[in-house]
Design a protein that fits this description.
Oligomer: single chain
Order of helices and strands: HHHHHHHHEHEEHEE
Number of strands: 5
Distance between the termini: 36 Å
Shape: elongated
Helix content: 55-70%
Largest sheet: 5 strands, mixed
Strand content: 5-15%
């Protein structure tokens, strides 16, 4: 009962007010004893008023500081929770009126942490199941199509090129016409072969295929940039290993973001950065393209909805920030809450 009484905010303020009044009266009494007996009643009243104002101001400032510190502690913890740090806890020390609030916040944060761990675990399991079923079938079909194109169309184009190369022999029949046709066929066949090589390369599956995310990006990212005339730079800053599901989703999000750069950005270069904080994995893709006005583009455009869905499966977020004439920045945050441990 006494603890509950001490923790009540109104009684704490009343106690400070009573203490301030007692100190004011005590100091006033001491002041009266120290003053010259010949002093007038007006002087005594003025000095008494000064003592009361100073003491009341000092105690008021002290009380405000106490409450400000408690509010600031709660505010800082709330900001950390909003930024994805669900492991934050407030130390419940003393018997102040904010202890019940701190306890409720700690319970809330503890519950959110457990739910986020469960969300990430279930999300990772679902991702790997999908990768083993739906996407596996799609990737297998892409492999088959790539093989068929290589065995048929590419060889036919090569045959056209060989036939076109033999056209100079037709010069005996019509030298001027044969030369013109020869040049056209050679140019067309060379162009068709280059296009077909790019087409086959794009059809080949882009899954990790037993590689780590870094190994896959080291191979895929520069090749993709070269095929599409981009100056790409990969900045890898991750230290802690990622789970298989996180690597899978980040790779797919990277592919989606890079496809948007090629389709929409009209960029000359881009930088892909994978970094981490104590609580999050952060993927950022910045290009030097034309950019766009945020209000002129639908929410589902530029693949944002797809990237958001992939990030949300792991409890993360994805956002696109762009300004007309200043390029575009894609940022994906994934909390590092579930690391494969068992959840009780």
């Amino acid at each position: 009962m006494m603890v509950r009484f001490l923790r009540s905010g109104k009684w704490e303020l009343i106690g400070i007010f009573v203490l301030a009044s007692f100190v004011s009266l005590l100091l006033t009494f001491v002041l009266w004893k120290m003053m010259d007996p010949q002093s007038s009643l007006l002087e005594l009243k003025l000095w008494s008023a000064v003592v009361i104002v100073v003491v009341s101001g000092a105690f008021g400032y002290w009380a405000a500081q106490r409450f400000d510190q408690r509010v600031d502690t709660l505010h800082l913890s709330l900001k950390q929770a909003v930024n994805g740090n669900y492991q934050v806890r407030i130390t419940e020390k003393g018997h102040n009126s904010f202890v019940p609030v701190y306890q409720e916040f700690n319970e809330l944060a503890k519950g959110m942490e457990a739910k986020m761990k469960l969300l990430q675990r279930l999300g990772e399991e679902k991702i790997m199941q999908e990768a083993a079923s739906n996407e596996a079938a799609v990737l297998e079909e892409r492999k088959r199509l790539a093989r068929d194109l290589h065995d048929t169309v590419s060889q036919q184009l090569f045959a056209i090129h060989m036939c076109a190369s033999s056209l100079p022999k037709l010069q005996e029949l019509d030298e001027e016409r044969a030369a013109s046709v020869m040049k056209q066929l050679i140019d067309m066949s060379n162009t068709a072969q280059k296009q077909m090589r790019n087409f086959i390369a794009q059809l080949r599956p882009m899954e990790l295929e037993g590689k780590s995310l870094k190994e896959a990006l080291d191979k895929w990212f520069p090749d993709y940039c070269q095929q599409n005339g981009l100056q790409g730079r990969l900045d890898w800053r991750l230290v802690e290993p990622l789970s298989e599901a996180k690597e899978h989703q980040l790779f797919l999000i990277t592919q989606e973001a890079m496809a948007n750069v090629v389709k929409h950005a009209k960029a000359e270069g881009c930088t892909l950065t994978l970094a981490e904080t104590e609580r999050q994995v952060v993927m950022t893709l910045v290009d030097d393209g034309a950019g766009f006005k945020a209000d002129a583009v639908g929410r589902g455009s530029y693949g944002l909805s797809t990237m958001q869905e992939r990030a949300q499966k792991l409890g993360g977020t994805a956002e696109i920030v762009s300004k007309l004439g200043s390029g575009t920045r894609v940022k994906v945050n994934i909390p590092k809450i579930y690391r494969g441990e068992q959840i009780s």
